Structure formats: C-alpha cells, structure tokens
C-alpha cells in the first residue's frame, strides 16, 4: 500500500468506497484491484474516498545475449558496442544496485558489465552478466613498398606479397573496396594491405606501388646457323640480337643451356632476351647445321726416271 499515491492530508487506504477495512501500508497490492483513499483534516475524515485501480505489471527477466563479447582495441569500444536482446537496455557496473553506465563509457578488457531491461515501466531485477574481451588490433603487415612485375605474366593482386596473417588488399589506405585476388594490377597503381589477427583487422595498411615493366619480344637473328665440326661449336657460338640472351632446349619452359654445351647437327636452339628484368616469353628458333670438316687433301708423288751420266775418258 505504501506505493500508492494520493494528494491530501493524513491519507488512509481502504478496501471499499465506504466502510470496509483500513489497509496497512505493508499490504501487498493486487493487480486490477480497487483501493480507496480518504484524508483527515482537523480531526474530520472525508466521507468520499478516491478510487484507485492498481495495475501490477510483471517484472521482466534479465535480457539475453552472449556472456562473453569480443572487441578490437583499435576501434575503442564503449558500452554502446555491447549487444543484448531486450527492451530499454541499461548497463550497470554491478549485478545489483551499482552505478548506471553511460553509453560512451570505454570498455575494459576482462571487465564484467551488467544489463537490465525495462518492460511496461518495470525494470528487471536480474541482470545479464557480460564479460568484455579486448583483443589487440595488429599493425599493418610488412613488405616491399615497390613491387615490380612483367606485363607478359598478366600480374594480379594474388602476385602482390606482404608478410602478415590473413592479408587482404584494398584500393585505399582507409575504407575503400576489398580487391579480389584475380584483380589485374595497373602500372603505377597503389595497393593497400591489411592483416587480421585474433579476429582484429589492422587499421593501418601497407602501401605498395606496382610497377609493370613491358615484356620484350623474342630476340632477332638467323633461323638457320651453320658451323664446321672442326671448330667444335658450342652454344656460345650461336648468335642472336637482343639483351641478356639465354638459350633453351625448348620453345617454352625447357632447360637452360650452358654456353659450353656442344652444338648438335639438326637440333633446334631457342633464344630469349631479358629487358628491365623481364624475360621474353617468345623465343627465337634457331636450327643448327654442323658440317663435317673434310680431311686434308693428299698429293700423289711420281718418281721421274733420270739418265746416268756416262763415265770415262773424254777424247
């Protein structure tokens, strides 16, 4: 009864509009029940009584939600970051009583926060206990700020390198769009890498500028080159016009020849060239002819007959 209110002097509560029983202030209120108030002035009690109907709403249970909620230190989480299901949620620093916390209050790692809900004007007496876990936001991944590629290999974001965990690439230093690994790289374009550790993505990103050098064509030269067996020709004797010439045993892939490898008659040798660190994908195809050096010619010697000079006395 003590919770009922009426404006007057020496208020008393009864269970009837007239007569009835005087109710003690400790009497529990019953939902939808009528209570009647009188007032007394100068020793005279009012014969008319105020009719008050009590509505006793059910006190709700505590709100629901995860008892452990994880955040990243870099985003500076606050009470407003905590998530529970309920109505008119309020957060406290204790399971009962305690202080009401402002939504802007920073969260502390390992600290307990207690949520109530209010329904139909009734605040839950029980509160949800939530422990905040704050993981450290990592720094940006590390790596070369300038990365060089060859146009012939059609480089993509997947070819960029950075050292870190769960690296992701964006088109901006902050915000921006996440890039698919199949995104083609552009010459002189900046790409930005983040890393994610224990669920926290770095706020800072590694800035990488991609340089795409042009892949050169095959070197030029004679497609048929002849040698004499007597000179014991080797790969070093093959000629092609270009930069950083290399010779292979196949038009693609294959094995790199040593300059000392002996040339074989009728074999094909394939030359690439390398310009600004980019090796040509196409190769010059050279067919080798090793002619047999003939033996030294032999002369036929004929012994001519001679006449003997007669001997004797000259008369």
Task: Give a verbal description of the structure.
This protein is an all-beta fold. Helix content is 0%, strand content 30%. It is built from no helices and 23 strands. A 4-stranded mixed sheet has the order 6-11-8-7, with no helix packed on it. The chain has a 4-stranded mixed sheet with strand order 12-17-14-13, with no helix packed on it. Strands 18-23-20-19 form a 4-stranded mixed sheet, with no helix packed on it. It is rod-shaped, with a radius of gyration of 50 Å. The mean pLDDT is 94.
Order of strands, widest sheet: 6-11-8-7
Instruction: From the alpha carbons, calculate the radius of gyration and give it in angstroms.
Output: 50 Å
Helix content: under 10%
- Beta content comes to 25-35%
Structure classification? mainly beta
Terminal residue distance: 191 Å
Number of helices: 0
* Average pLDDT figure: 94
The total count of strands amounts to 23
Give a quick account of the main beta sheet: strands, pairing sense, barrel closure: 4 strands, mixed
Q: Helix and strand succession? A: EEEEEEEEEEEEEEEEEEEEEEE
Structural key phrases:
23 strands, mainly beta, 315 residues
Task: Provide a quick synopsis of the model.
Helices cover 0% and strands 30% of the residues. With 315 residues, the chain is mainly β.
């Amino acid at each position: 009864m003590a919770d009922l209110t009426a404006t007057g002097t020496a208020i008393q509560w009864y269970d009837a509009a007239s007569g009835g029983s005087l109710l003690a202030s400790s009497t529990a209120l019953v939902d939808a029940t009528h209570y009647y108030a009188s007032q007394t002035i100068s020793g005279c009690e009012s014969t008319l009584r105020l009719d008050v109907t009590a509505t006793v709403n059910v006190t709700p249970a505590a709100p629901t939600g995860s008892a452990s909620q994880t955040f990243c230190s870099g985003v500076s989480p606050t009470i407003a970051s905590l998530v529970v299901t309920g109505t008119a949620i309020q957060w406290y620093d204790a399971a009962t009583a305690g202080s009401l916390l402002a939504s802007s209050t920073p969260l502390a790692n390992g600290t307990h926060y207690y949520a109530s809900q209010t329904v139909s004007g009734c605040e839950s007496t029980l509160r949800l206990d939530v422990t905040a876990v704050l993981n450290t936001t990592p720094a940006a991944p590390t790596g070369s700020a300038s990365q060089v590629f060859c146009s012939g290999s059609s480089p993509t974001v997947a070819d960029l390198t950075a050292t870190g965990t769960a690296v992701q690439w964006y088109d901006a230093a902050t915000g921006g769009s996440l890039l698919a690994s199949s995104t083609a790289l552009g010459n002189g374009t900046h790409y930005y890498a983040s890393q994610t550790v224990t669920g926290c993505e770095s706020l800072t990103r590694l800035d990488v500028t991609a340089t795409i050098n042009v892949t050169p064509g095959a070197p030029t030269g004679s497609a048929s080159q002849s040698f004499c067996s007597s000179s014991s020709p080797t790969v070093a004797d093959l000629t092609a016009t270009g930069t950083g010439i290399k010779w292979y045993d196949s038009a693609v892939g294959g094995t790199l020849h040593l300059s000392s490898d002996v040339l074989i008659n009728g074999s094909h040798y394939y030359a690439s060239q390398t310009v600004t660190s980019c090796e040509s994908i196409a190769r010059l195809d050279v067919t080798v002819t090793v002619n047999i050096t003939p033996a030294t010619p032999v002369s036929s010697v004929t012994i001519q007959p001679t006449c003997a000079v007669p001997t004797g006395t000259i008369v």
